[in-house]
Amino acid sequence: MKNWYKDVVGYQIYPSTFKDGNNDGFGDIVGIIDKLDYLKELGIGLIWIGPIYKSPKVDNGYDISNFYEIDEKYGTLEDVKLLLKECKKREIKVIFDLVLNHTSDKHEWFIDACENVNSKYKDYYIFKEPKVIDGIKYPPNNWKGFFEESVWEYVEKIDKYYFHIFSKKMPDLNWDNKDLREEMYAVARFWLDLGVDGFRMDAIAHLAKDTSFKDAYPLDEKLVLDTSKFSNRDELFDYLKEFKEEVLSKYNCMSIGEVGGCASVEDALKYVDYNNGYFNMVFNFDTCWENGAYGSIDKADSEIKTNVKNLKLLFKKWYDGIFNKAWMPIYWLNHDHPRVISQYGNINYRNESGKMLGLTLLFLYGTPFIYQGEEIGMSNVNYSDFDMFNDVHAKNFIEEYKSKYDKEVILRFLNRTSRDNARTMMQWNDSENGGFTNSESVFKVNDNYKIVNVENELKDDDSILNFYKKMIFLRNTKYKNEATLGKLEFIDLDNEDVFAYTKTFDKKIMVIANFRDYIVEFDNYIQENDIILHNYKDINIKNKKILLRPYECFFLEIKGF
Protein backbone atom coordinates (compact mmCIF):
# COMPACT_ATOMS: atom_id res chain seq x y z
CA MET A 1 0.00 0.00 0.00
CA LYS A 2 1.25 3.47 -0.87
CA ASN A 3 2.48 5.56 2.05
CA TRP A 4 0.52 8.60 0.90
CA TYR A 5 0.77 10.22 4.33
CA LYS A 6 4.48 10.96 3.73
CA ASP A 7 3.74 13.18 0.74
CA VAL A 8 1.22 15.61 2.27
CA VAL A 9 1.07 18.59 4.57
CA GLY A 10 -1.46 18.09 7.34
CA TYR A 11 -3.76 20.62 8.99
CA GLN A 12 -5.47 20.15 12.34
CA ILE A 13 -9.02 21.40 12.67
CA TYR A 14 -10.52 22.03 16.10
CA PRO A 15 -14.10 21.77 14.87
CA SER A 16 -15.92 23.83 17.49
CA THR A 17 -13.90 26.99 16.68
CA PHE A 18 -12.95 26.55 13.01
CA LYS A 19 -16.08 27.81 11.17
CA ASP A 20 -19.74 28.04 12.08
CA GLY A 21 -21.74 26.99 9.03
CA ASN A 22 -25.29 27.30 10.43
CA ASN A 23 -24.80 30.41 12.60
CA ASP A 24 -25.59 28.92 15.98
CA GLY A 25 -22.30 30.13 17.43
CA PHE A 26 -20.61 26.71 17.32
CA GLY A 27 -18.26 25.37 14.66
CA ASP A 28 -19.57 22.49 12.59
CA ILE A 29 -19.06 20.17 9.63
CA VAL A 30 -20.82 22.49 7.20
CA GLY A 31 -18.35 25.19 8.21
CA ILE A 32 -15.43 22.88 7.43
CA ILE A 33 -16.90 22.08 4.01
CA ASP A 34 -17.24 25.81 3.35
CA LYS A 35 -13.48 26.27 3.84
CA LEU A 36 -12.16 23.28 1.88
CA ASP A 37 -11.21 25.45 -1.10
CA TYR A 38 -9.18 27.64 1.25
CA LEU A 39 -7.32 24.58 2.55
CA LYS A 40 -6.76 23.24 -0.96
CA GLU A 41 -5.34 26.57 -2.12
CA LEU A 42 -3.06 26.59 0.92
CA GLY A 43 -1.65 23.27 -0.30
CA ILE A 44 -3.08 21.02 2.39
CA GLY A 45 -3.39 17.32 1.53
CA LEU A 46 -4.62 15.99 4.87
CA ILE A 47 -6.96 17.30 7.56
CA TRP A 48 -7.19 15.91 11.08
CA ILE A 49 -10.60 16.72 12.55
CA GLY A 50 -11.06 16.59 16.33
CA PRO A 51 -13.86 14.43 17.81
CA ILE A 52 -17.33 15.17 16.44
CA TYR A 53 -19.14 12.15 17.88
CA LYS A 54 -22.11 12.29 20.25
CA SER A 55 -20.76 13.54 23.57
CA PRO A 56 -21.66 15.44 26.75
CA LYS A 57 -18.35 17.31 26.10
CA VAL A 58 -16.94 17.01 29.60
CA ASP A 59 -13.57 16.71 27.88
CA ASN A 60 -14.12 18.56 24.61
CA GLY A 61 -15.72 15.59 22.87
CA TYR A 62 -13.19 12.96 23.91
CA ASP A 63 -15.90 11.60 26.24
CA ILE A 64 -18.00 9.76 23.65
CA SER A 65 -21.54 8.55 24.34
CA ASN A 66 -22.14 7.08 20.87
CA PHE A 67 -19.31 6.12 18.51
CA TYR A 68 -21.63 5.91 15.50
CA GLU A 69 -23.56 9.14 15.91
CA ILE A 70 -22.49 12.70 15.13
CA ASP A 71 -23.14 15.23 17.87
CA GLU A 72 -25.97 17.55 16.88
CA LYS A 73 -23.76 20.58 17.55
CA TYR A 74 -21.55 19.49 14.64
CA GLY A 75 -24.25 18.26 12.28
CA THR A 76 -25.32 14.87 10.96
CA LEU A 77 -23.89 11.72 9.43
CA GLU A 78 -25.09 13.02 6.07
CA ASP A 79 -22.94 16.12 6.60
CA VAL A 80 -19.95 13.85 7.21
CA LYS A 81 -20.65 11.93 4.00
CA LEU A 82 -20.78 15.21 2.09
CA LEU A 83 -17.55 16.37 3.74
CA LEU A 84 -15.76 13.17 2.70
CA LYS A 85 -17.13 13.48 -0.84
CA GLU A 86 -16.00 17.10 -1.14
CA CYS A 87 -12.57 16.31 0.29
CA LYS A 88 -12.13 13.49 -2.20
CA LYS A 89 -12.93 15.91 -5.05
CA ARG A 90 -10.09 18.11 -3.85
CA GLU A 91 -7.69 15.22 -3.15
CA ILE A 92 -7.66 16.02 0.57
CA LYS A 93 -7.40 13.06 2.94
CA VAL A 94 -9.38 13.08 6.20
CA ILE A 95 -8.51 11.49 9.53
CA PHE A 96 -10.73 11.45 12.62
CA ASP A 97 -9.91 11.13 16.28
CA LEU A 98 -10.57 7.59 17.51
CA VAL A 99 -10.95 7.12 21.26
CA LEU A 100 -10.34 3.50 22.25
CA ASN A 101 -9.45 3.81 25.94
CA HIS A 102 -12.72 5.01 27.42
CA THR A 103 -16.29 6.13 26.83
CA SER A 104 -18.52 8.75 28.39
CA ASP A 105 -20.43 7.68 31.49
CA LYS A 106 -23.50 8.49 29.37
CA HIS A 107 -22.74 5.69 26.90
CA GLU A 108 -25.52 3.09 26.84
CA TRP A 109 -23.04 0.32 27.66
CA PHE A 110 -21.96 2.00 30.87
CA ILE A 111 -25.44 3.05 31.90
CA ASP A 112 -26.66 -0.53 31.57
CA ALA A 113 -23.60 -1.90 33.38
CA CYS A 114 -24.32 0.40 36.35
CA GLU A 115 -28.06 -0.25 36.39
CA ASN A 116 -28.11 -3.99 35.90
CA VAL A 117 -26.13 -6.45 38.02
CA ASN A 118 -26.42 -9.01 35.22
CA SER A 119 -25.61 -6.59 32.41
CA LYS A 120 -23.77 -8.11 29.47
CA TYR A 121 -21.76 -4.89 29.36
CA LYS A 122 -20.30 -5.15 32.88
CA ASP A 123 -17.16 -6.76 31.46
CA TYR A 124 -16.82 -3.99 28.86
CA TYR A 125 -15.52 -1.89 31.76
CA ILE A 126 -13.39 -2.61 34.82
CA PHE A 127 -15.51 -3.12 37.93
CA LYS A 128 -14.11 -4.27 41.27
CA GLU A 129 -15.49 -5.08 44.70
CA PRO A 130 -14.86 -2.50 47.44
CA LYS A 131 -12.10 -3.08 49.95
CA VAL A 132 -13.87 -3.38 53.32
CA ILE A 133 -12.03 -2.41 56.49
CA ASP A 134 -13.90 -2.33 59.81
CA GLY A 135 -17.16 -2.34 57.91
CA ILE A 136 -16.21 0.72 55.81
CA LYS A 137 -15.94 0.48 52.03
CA TYR A 138 -12.82 1.80 50.31
CA PRO A 139 -11.56 1.83 46.70
CA PRO A 140 -9.90 -1.44 45.58
CA ASN A 141 -6.40 0.11 45.64
CA ASN A 142 -4.46 3.36 46.09
CA TRP A 143 -3.93 4.25 42.43
CA LYS A 144 -4.25 7.88 41.39
CA GLY A 145 -5.28 8.95 37.87
CA PHE A 146 -4.26 11.87 35.69
CA PHE A 147 -6.97 14.15 37.10
CA GLU A 148 -5.51 14.18 40.65
CA GLU A 149 -8.08 11.76 42.07
CA SER A 150 -8.54 8.05 42.70
CA VAL A 151 -8.98 5.91 39.59
CA TRP A 152 -12.00 4.35 41.31
CA GLU A 153 -15.57 5.63 41.57
CA TYR A 154 -18.27 3.85 43.58
CA VAL A 155 -21.64 2.76 42.10
CA GLU A 156 -24.02 2.13 44.96
CA LYS A 157 -26.67 0.26 42.97
CA ILE A 158 -24.32 -2.60 42.05
CA ASP A 159 -21.98 -2.15 45.06
CA LYS A 160 -18.88 -1.95 42.89
CA TYR A 161 -16.20 0.54 41.92
CA TYR A 162 -15.37 1.31 38.28
CA PHE A 163 -11.96 2.29 36.91
CA HIS A 164 -11.06 5.59 35.20
CA ILE A 165 -7.62 7.11 34.64
CA PHE A 166 -9.08 10.41 33.44
CA SER A 167 -12.31 12.06 34.61
CA LYS A 168 -14.82 9.96 36.55
CA LYS A 169 -17.15 10.88 33.71
CA MET A 170 -14.89 8.83 31.39
CA PRO A 171 -14.79 5.16 32.51
CA ASP A 172 -11.99 3.05 31.01
CA LEU A 173 -12.84 0.17 28.71
CA ASN A 174 -11.70 -3.37 29.50
CA TRP A 175 -9.47 -4.40 26.59
CA ASP A 176 -8.95 -7.78 28.22
CA ASN A 177 -12.46 -8.58 27.02
CA LYS A 178 -12.55 -10.04 23.50
CA ASP A 179 -16.15 -8.91 22.91
CA LEU A 180 -15.23 -5.33 23.77
CA ARG A 181 -12.29 -5.43 21.41
CA GLU A 182 -14.54 -6.64 18.61
CA GLU A 183 -16.95 -3.76 19.33
CA MET A 184 -14.13 -1.25 18.97
CA TYR A 185 -12.84 -2.88 15.79
CA ALA A 186 -16.36 -2.56 14.38
CA VAL A 187 -16.35 1.16 15.21
CA ALA A 188 -13.08 1.66 13.34
CA ARG A 189 -14.31 -0.34 10.33
CA PHE A 190 -17.54 1.68 10.22
CA TRP A 191 -15.69 4.97 9.73
CA LEU A 192 -13.09 3.54 7.37
CA ASP A 193 -15.85 1.99 5.25
CA LEU A 194 -17.60 5.35 5.22
CA GLY A 195 -14.50 6.86 3.64
CA VAL A 196 -12.39 8.24 6.48
CA ASP A 197 -8.70 7.85 5.60
CA GLY A 198 -7.42 6.99 9.06
CA PHE A 199 -7.27 7.95 12.71
CA ARG A 200 -5.38 9.86 15.33
CA MET A 201 -5.80 7.48 18.27
CA ASP A 202 -6.26 9.21 21.59
CA ALA A 203 -4.59 7.92 24.78
CA ILE A 204 -3.60 4.71 23.00
CA ALA A 205 -0.77 3.95 25.45
CA HIS A 206 -3.23 3.21 28.26
CA LEU A 207 -5.35 0.34 26.93
CA ALA A 208 -3.61 -2.33 29.04
CA LYS A 209 -3.71 -2.30 32.84
CA ASP A 210 -1.90 -4.20 35.57
CA THR A 211 -4.68 -6.70 36.24
CA SER A 212 -3.26 -7.69 39.63
CA PHE A 213 -4.53 -4.29 40.82
CA LYS A 214 -2.05 -4.38 43.71
CA ASP A 215 -1.40 -1.17 45.60
CA ALA A 216 1.27 1.13 44.22
CA TYR A 217 4.33 2.14 46.23
CA PRO A 218 4.77 3.83 48.60
CA LEU A 219 2.03 1.87 50.36
CA ASP A 220 1.59 4.45 53.10
CA GLU A 221 0.52 7.11 50.59
CA LYS A 222 -3.23 7.63 50.29
CA LEU A 223 -3.04 7.96 46.50
CA VAL A 224 -0.10 7.17 44.24
CA LEU A 225 0.29 8.05 40.55
CA ASP A 226 2.25 5.15 39.05
CA THR A 227 1.77 5.27 35.30
CA SER A 228 3.44 1.88 34.86
CA LYS A 229 0.18 0.41 36.16
CA PHE A 230 -1.68 1.58 33.05
CA SER A 231 0.79 2.89 30.43
CA ASN A 232 2.87 1.19 27.72
CA ARG A 233 2.42 -2.25 29.27
CA ASP A 234 3.51 -5.37 27.39
CA GLU A 235 -0.09 -6.55 27.01
CA LEU A 236 -0.88 -3.39 25.08
CA PHE A 237 1.14 -4.56 22.11
CA ASP A 238 -0.86 -7.79 21.92
CA TYR A 239 -4.01 -5.68 21.55
CA LEU A 240 -2.39 -3.45 18.94
CA LYS A 241 -1.17 -6.45 16.97
CA GLU A 242 -4.70 -7.78 16.83
CA PHE A 243 -6.11 -4.35 15.94
CA LYS A 244 -3.64 -4.05 13.08
CA GLU A 245 -4.43 -7.55 11.80
CA GLU A 246 -8.20 -7.19 12.15
CA VAL A 247 -8.60 -3.61 10.94
CA LEU A 248 -5.69 -1.39 9.91
CA SER A 249 -3.99 -3.87 7.58
CA LYS A 250 -7.20 -4.19 5.56
CA TYR A 251 -7.24 -0.51 4.52
CA ASN A 252 -4.86 1.98 2.91
CA CYS A 253 -5.30 4.16 5.95
CA MET A 254 -3.15 6.38 8.14
CA SER A 255 -2.78 5.73 11.87
CA ILE A 256 -1.23 8.05 14.45
CA GLY A 257 -1.04 7.06 18.10
CA GLU A 258 -0.92 9.56 20.93
CA VAL A 259 1.57 8.04 23.35
CA GLY A 260 2.01 10.87 25.82
CA GLY A 261 4.60 13.49 26.55
CA CYS A 262 7.23 11.20 28.04
CA ALA A 263 7.68 8.59 25.32
CA SER A 264 11.26 7.79 24.40
CA VAL A 265 12.47 7.04 20.89
CA GLU A 266 12.71 3.39 21.91
CA ASP A 267 9.09 3.46 23.13
CA ALA A 268 7.98 5.05 19.88
CA LEU A 269 9.68 2.40 17.75
CA LYS A 270 7.63 -0.29 19.49
CA TYR A 271 4.59 1.38 17.97
CA VAL A 272 5.81 2.47 14.54
CA ASP A 273 8.87 0.49 13.44
CA TYR A 274 8.50 -0.18 9.70
CA ASN A 275 9.03 -3.92 10.20
CA ASN A 276 7.16 -4.67 13.39
CA GLY A 277 5.15 -1.57 14.28
CA TYR A 278 1.41 -1.17 14.51
CA PHE A 279 0.89 2.46 13.44
CA ASN A 280 2.37 4.84 10.90
CA MET A 281 3.37 7.52 13.42
CA VAL A 282 3.13 8.59 17.05
CA PHE A 283 2.77 12.04 18.54
CA ASN A 284 5.18 13.08 21.27
CA PHE A 285 5.37 16.55 22.82
CA ASP A 286 9.13 16.92 23.28
CA THR A 287 9.48 20.05 21.16
CA CYS A 288 6.37 21.93 22.34
CA TRP A 289 7.56 23.67 25.53
CA GLU A 290 11.21 24.60 24.89
CA ASN A 291 10.92 28.14 26.23
CA GLY A 292 10.42 27.52 29.94
CA ALA A 293 6.72 28.41 29.83
CA TYR A 294 5.52 25.08 31.24
CA GLY A 295 5.04 25.49 35.00
CA SER A 296 6.30 29.07 34.76
CA ILE A 297 3.90 30.83 37.13
CA ASP A 298 6.80 32.37 39.05
CA LYS A 299 8.56 33.63 35.92
CA ALA A 300 8.30 37.09 34.43
CA ASP A 301 7.67 37.41 30.71
CA SER A 302 11.30 38.43 30.23
CA GLU A 303 12.41 35.04 31.56
CA ILE A 304 10.57 33.14 28.82
CA LYS A 305 13.14 32.47 26.14
CA THR A 306 13.33 29.75 23.50
CA ASN A 307 16.09 27.23 24.13
CA VAL A 308 17.14 27.01 20.48
CA LYS A 309 20.05 24.68 21.11
CA ASN A 310 17.95 22.12 22.97
CA LEU A 311 15.15 22.44 20.43
CA LYS A 312 17.61 21.36 17.72
CA LEU A 313 18.96 18.55 19.88
CA LEU A 314 15.45 17.22 20.46
CA PHE A 315 14.62 17.19 16.75
CA LYS A 316 17.99 15.56 16.11
CA LYS A 317 17.40 12.91 18.78
CA TRP A 318 14.16 11.86 17.14
CA TYR A 319 15.61 11.99 13.64
CA ASP A 320 18.68 9.94 14.56
CA GLY A 321 16.53 7.32 16.27
CA ILE A 322 13.75 7.16 13.68
CA PHE A 323 15.31 7.73 10.24
CA ASN A 324 15.00 4.69 7.96
CA LYS A 325 13.22 2.83 10.77
CA ALA A 326 9.95 4.72 11.02
CA TRP A 327 8.08 7.90 10.13
CA MET A 328 6.99 10.73 12.38
CA PRO A 329 4.73 13.79 12.51
CA ILE A 330 6.29 17.24 12.99
CA TYR A 331 4.41 20.18 14.49
CA TRP A 332 4.74 23.17 16.80
CA LEU A 333 1.42 22.86 18.61
CA ASN A 334 -2.02 21.29 18.77
CA HIS A 335 -5.29 22.12 20.54
CA ASP A 336 -3.67 21.61 23.97
CA HIS A 337 -0.78 24.05 23.54
CA PRO A 338 -0.15 27.81 23.38
CA ARG A 339 0.15 29.52 20.02
CA VAL A 340 3.63 29.02 18.58
CA ILE A 341 4.07 32.63 17.48
CA SER A 342 3.69 33.61 21.15
CA GLN A 343 5.97 30.81 22.33
CA TYR A 344 8.88 30.72 19.89
CA GLY A 345 8.08 33.81 17.83
CA ASN A 346 7.20 37.37 18.73
CA ILE A 347 3.98 39.31 18.18
CA ASN A 348 6.06 42.48 17.73
CA TYR A 349 7.65 40.71 14.74
CA ARG A 350 4.55 38.76 13.76
CA ASN A 351 5.21 38.75 10.02
CA GLU A 352 8.89 37.85 10.30
CA SER A 353 8.61 35.24 13.05
CA GLY A 354 5.46 33.65 11.62
CA LYS A 355 7.24 33.01 8.33
CA MET A 356 10.40 31.83 10.08
CA LEU A 357 8.57 29.27 12.20
CA GLY A 358 6.71 27.87 9.23
CA LEU A 359 9.88 27.51 7.16
CA THR A 360 11.82 25.89 10.00
CA LEU A 361 9.16 23.22 10.45
CA LEU A 362 8.08 22.39 6.93
CA PHE A 363 11.28 20.82 5.62
CA LEU A 364 12.25 18.74 8.65
CA TYR A 365 11.85 14.93 8.63
CA GLY A 366 8.24 13.80 8.81
CA THR A 367 4.69 14.84 7.95
CA PRO A 368 4.11 18.48 8.97
CA PHE A 369 0.92 19.39 10.80
CA ILE A 370 -0.21 23.02 10.83
CA TYR A 371 -2.71 23.95 13.53
CA GLN A 372 -5.62 26.14 12.43
CA GLY A 373 -4.61 29.80 12.36
CA GLU A 374 -0.89 29.09 12.52
CA GLU A 375 -0.66 30.04 8.85
CA ILE A 376 -1.89 33.59 9.54
CA GLY A 377 0.09 34.17 12.73
CA MET A 378 -2.71 33.80 15.27
CA SER A 379 -1.34 34.42 18.77
CA ASN A 380 -2.14 33.91 22.44
CA VAL A 381 -5.01 35.58 24.25
CA ASN A 382 -4.60 38.62 26.48
CA TYR A 383 -7.43 38.09 28.94
CA SER A 384 -7.88 40.61 31.73
CA ASP A 385 -10.20 38.63 33.97
CA PHE A 386 -10.63 35.06 35.21
CA ASP A 387 -14.14 34.63 33.81
CA MET A 388 -12.82 35.07 30.26
CA PHE A 389 -11.22 31.61 30.33
CA ASN A 390 -13.31 28.70 29.03
CA ASP A 391 -11.00 25.71 29.44
CA VAL A 392 -11.77 23.50 32.44
CA HIS A 393 -8.07 23.13 33.23
CA ALA A 394 -7.67 26.91 33.42
CA LYS A 395 -10.74 27.23 35.63
CA ASN A 396 -9.48 24.54 37.98
CA PHE A 397 -6.07 26.21 38.07
CA ILE A 398 -7.63 29.54 39.03
CA GLU A 399 -9.60 27.93 41.86
CA GLU A 400 -6.52 26.19 43.21
CA TYR A 401 -4.10 29.13 43.01
CA LYS A 402 -6.15 32.30 43.50
CA SER A 403 -5.49 32.24 47.25
CA LYS A 404 -1.75 31.68 46.70
CA TYR A 405 -0.91 34.20 43.96
CA ASP A 406 -1.99 37.69 42.92
CA LYS A 407 -4.54 37.87 40.15
CA GLU A 408 -2.05 39.53 37.80
CA VAL A 409 0.44 36.69 38.25
CA ILE A 410 -2.17 34.01 37.48
CA LEU A 411 -3.39 35.93 34.43
CA ARG A 412 0.17 36.33 33.15
CA PHE A 413 0.73 32.59 33.48
CA LEU A 414 -2.56 31.51 31.86
CA ASN A 415 -2.22 34.02 29.04
CA ARG A 416 1.04 32.31 28.08
CA THR A 417 0.11 28.64 28.77
CA SER A 418 -3.65 28.04 28.80
CA ARG A 419 -5.30 25.74 26.28
CA ASP A 420 -7.70 28.61 25.58
CA ASN A 421 -4.89 30.14 23.51
CA ALA A 422 -5.38 27.55 20.76
CA ARG A 423 -9.16 27.47 21.03
CA THR A 424 -10.22 30.97 20.14
CA MET A 425 -12.29 31.41 16.99
CA MET A 426 -10.50 31.12 13.68
CA GLN A 427 -10.02 34.63 12.30
CA TRP A 428 -11.42 34.70 8.76
CA ASN A 429 -12.03 38.44 8.28
CA ASP A 430 -12.40 41.70 10.18
CA SER A 431 -16.16 41.46 10.72
CA GLU A 432 -17.65 40.80 14.14
CA ASN A 433 -16.38 37.51 15.64
CA GLY A 434 -13.68 37.42 13.00
CA GLY A 435 -16.06 35.97 10.43
CA PHE A 436 -16.36 32.73 12.44
CA THR A 437 -20.09 33.19 13.06
CA ASN A 438 -22.87 35.71 12.55
CA SER A 439 -24.40 34.97 15.95
CA GLU A 440 -23.37 35.03 19.59
CA SER A 441 -20.94 32.34 20.65
CA VAL A 442 -19.59 30.84 23.86
CA PHE A 443 -16.17 31.10 22.25
CA LYS A 444 -14.11 34.27 22.11
CA VAL A 445 -12.21 35.90 19.30
CA ASN A 446 -8.72 37.26 19.85
CA ASP A 447 -8.81 41.05 20.08
CA ASN A 448 -6.35 41.37 17.16
CA TYR A 449 -8.78 39.87 14.62
CA LYS A 450 -9.30 43.21 12.85
CA ILE A 451 -5.70 43.03 11.65
CA VAL A 452 -4.80 39.32 11.82
CA ASN A 453 -7.23 37.47 9.57
CA VAL A 454 -7.34 35.38 6.41
CA GLU A 455 -9.02 37.98 4.22
CA ASN A 456 -6.44 40.66 4.99
CA GLU A 457 -3.53 38.30 4.42
CA LEU A 458 -4.85 36.96 1.13
CA LYS A 459 -4.73 40.53 -0.21
CA ASP A 460 -1.18 41.14 1.04
CA ASP A 461 1.53 39.59 -1.14
CA ASP A 462 3.97 39.89 1.78
CA SER A 463 1.74 38.18 4.35
CA ILE A 464 2.48 35.10 6.45
CA LEU A 465 -0.33 33.27 4.67
CA ASN A 466 1.06 33.87 1.19
CA PHE A 467 4.51 32.87 2.44
CA TYR A 468 2.99 29.59 3.70
CA LYS A 469 1.44 29.00 0.28
CA LYS A 470 4.85 29.39 -1.36
CA MET A 471 6.57 27.12 1.17
CA ILE A 472 3.97 24.37 0.90
CA PHE A 473 3.98 24.57 -2.90
CA LEU A 474 7.75 24.09 -2.95
CA ARG A 475 7.49 21.19 -0.51
CA ASN A 476 4.78 19.56 -2.60
CA THR A 477 6.55 20.02 -5.95
CA LYS A 478 10.15 20.99 -6.73
CA TYR A 479 11.63 19.95 -3.36
CA LYS A 480 9.30 17.06 -2.54
CA ASN A 481 12.05 14.43 -2.58
CA GLU A 482 14.32 16.51 -0.40
CA ALA A 483 11.51 17.14 2.08
CA THR A 484 10.34 13.53 2.34
CA LEU A 485 13.41 11.45 1.47
CA GLY A 486 16.36 13.76 2.03
CA LYS A 487 19.08 13.20 4.58
CA LEU A 488 18.83 15.74 7.41
CA GLU A 489 21.96 17.40 8.83
CA PHE A 490 21.91 20.11 11.47
CA ILE A 491 24.37 22.99 11.07
CA ASP A 492 26.17 24.48 14.07
CA LEU A 493 24.24 22.60 16.75
CA ASP A 494 25.87 24.62 19.51
CA ASN A 495 24.55 27.90 18.18
CA GLU A 496 22.23 29.36 20.84
CA ASP A 497 20.29 31.58 18.43
CA VAL A 498 20.11 30.08 14.94
CA PHE A 499 18.28 26.94 13.82
CA ALA A 500 19.92 25.75 10.56
CA TYR A 501 19.89 22.48 8.67
CA THR A 502 20.32 20.91 5.25
CA LYS A 503 18.30 18.23 3.45
CA THR A 504 19.97 16.28 0.65
CA PHE A 505 18.54 13.98 -2.01
CA ASP A 506 18.60 14.87 -5.72
CA LYS A 507 19.23 18.45 -4.67
CA LYS A 508 20.58 19.99 -1.50
CA ILE A 509 18.51 22.57 0.33
CA MET A 510 19.25 24.60 3.41
CA VAL A 511 17.11 26.39 5.99
CA ILE A 512 18.60 29.17 8.15
CA ALA A 513 16.40 30.69 10.86
CA ASN A 514 17.15 33.30 13.51
CA PHE A 515 14.95 32.67 16.59
CA ARG A 516 15.87 35.97 18.24
CA ASP A 517 14.47 39.51 18.25
CA TYR A 518 17.97 40.90 17.76
CA ILE A 519 20.70 40.68 15.11
CA VAL A 520 22.95 37.63 15.22
CA GLU A 521 25.91 36.69 13.05
CA PHE A 522 26.01 33.49 11.05
CA ASP A 523 28.57 32.08 8.61
CA ASN A 524 27.88 33.14 5.05
CA TYR A 525 26.03 30.41 3.16
CA ILE A 526 24.47 32.85 0.70
CA GLN A 527 27.18 33.32 -1.95
CA GLU A 528 27.05 30.93 -4.91
CA ASN A 529 23.71 29.54 -3.74
CA ASP A 530 20.17 30.28 -4.90
CA ILE A 531 17.87 32.06 -2.46
CA ILE A 532 14.50 30.39 -2.97
CA LEU A 533 12.62 32.09 -0.11
CA HIS A 534 13.55 34.90 2.27
CA ASN A 535 11.44 36.93 4.69
CA TYR A 536 13.31 40.24 4.31
CA LYS A 537 13.69 42.47 1.23
CA ASP A 538 17.48 42.44 1.15
CA ILE A 539 20.54 40.62 2.50
CA ASN A 540 22.81 42.01 5.20
CA ILE A 541 26.40 40.63 4.96
CA LYS A 542 29.44 41.90 6.86
CA ASN A 543 32.92 40.33 6.87
CA LYS A 544 31.61 37.28 4.99
CA LYS A 545 29.00 36.59 7.66
CA ILE A 546 25.27 37.04 7.38
CA LEU A 547 23.86 39.53 9.87
CA LEU A 548 20.54 37.86 10.57
CA ARG A 549 17.97 40.42 11.59
CA PRO A 550 15.16 39.61 14.05
CA TYR A 551 13.54 36.29 12.99
CA GLU A 552 15.17 36.44 9.56
CA CYS A 553 15.08 33.19 7.62
CA PHE A 554 16.41 31.81 4.32
CA PHE A 555 15.51 28.82 2.18
CA LEU A 556 18.44 28.04 -0.13
CA GLU A 557 19.33 25.59 -2.83
CA ILE A 558 23.02 24.72 -2.47
CA LYS A 559 24.95 24.77 -5.72
CA GLY A 560 27.46 22.11 -6.77
CA PHE A 561 27.12 19.90 -3.73
Report how far apart the termini are: 34 Å
What percentage of amino acids are in beta strands? 15-25%
Radius of gyration using CA atoms only: 24 Å
Query: Structural class from helices and strands?
Result: alpha/beta
Task: Count all strands and give the number.
Answer: 23
Biggest sheet: strands side by side, in what order? 13-12-11-5-2-1-15-14
Number of helices: 16
What is the mean pLDDT? 95
Shape annotation: globular
Contiguous low-pLDDT stretches (5 residues minimum) are none
List the helices and strands and how they pair.
Elements: E1 10-13, H1 15-18, H2 29-34, H3 36-42, E2 46-49, E3 53-54, E4 66-70, H4 77-89, E5 93-99, H5 108-115, E6 127-128, E7 131-133, E8 136-138, E9 152-155, E10 160-163, H6 178-194, E11 198-202, H7 234-246, E12 254-258, H8 265-272, E13 281-283, H9 308-322, E14 329-331, H10 340-343, H11 350-362, E15 367-371, H12 392-401, H13 407-417, H14 454-459, H15 464-476, H16 480-485, E16 487-491, E17 498-504, E18 508-514, E19 520-523, E20 530-534, E21 541-542, E22 545-548, E23 553-557
Parallel strand pairs: 1-2, 1-15, 2-5, 5-11, 11-12, 12-13, 14-15
Antiparallel strand pairs: 3-4, 6-10, 7-8, 9-10, 16-17, 17-18, 18-23, 19-22, 20-23, 21-22
